[in-house]
């Protein structure tokens, strides 16, 4: 039906809850009875095993959050880290960091690097600073 909102007619929306890993990446959406509605899998830098599950036209629950809880744009395949976009396919941000880095920390001088190339230990929710 053209112009449909995507919701099934005459149904009550189901409340779903996120199950996340230690980095904040959603691993599953579950209902109040702990039944899994959808599962997600990522590699170390956040490449989704089934990226079509993030497409809002995918049959099933809508989910806008991907790797480390960042907003995920299924059409571009990029994750939104508030200040800039992250491309999990190359493990780098697609634009320079506005922070120049620190001379005593050579890893910080690469303005495109993501979490000093250590995605199992750190996350960067802002696009500017990593946190452990």
UniProtKB/TrEMBL annotation:
Keyword annotations from UniProtKB, A to Z: Repeat
Start and end residues of each Teneurin-like YD-shell domain: 17-119
Top-rank taxon, per record: Bacteria
Gene3D superfamilies assigned: RHS repeat-associated core
Pfam families assigned: TEN_YD-shell (PF25023)
Residues of the signal peptide: none
Protein name: Teneurin-like YD-shell domain-containing protein
Lineage: Bacteria, Bacillati, Bacillota, Bacilli, Bacillales
């Amino acid at each position: 039906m053209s112009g449909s909102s995507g919701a099934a007619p005459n149904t009550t929306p189901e409340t779903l809850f996120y199950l996340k890993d230690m980095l904040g990446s959603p691993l599953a959406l579950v209902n109040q009875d702990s039944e899994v509605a959808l599962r997600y899998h990522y590699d170390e830098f956040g490449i989704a095993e089934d990226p079509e599950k993030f497409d809002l036209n995918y049959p099933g629950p809508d989910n806008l959050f991907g790797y480390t809880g960042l907003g995920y744009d299924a059409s571009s395949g990029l994750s939104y880290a508030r200040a800039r976009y992250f491309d999990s396919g190359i493990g780098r941000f697609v634009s320079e960091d506005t922070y120049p880095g620190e001379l005593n920390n050579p890893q910080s001088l690469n303005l495109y690097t993501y979490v000093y190339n250590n995605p199992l230990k750190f996350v960067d929710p802002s696009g500017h600073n990593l946190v452990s």
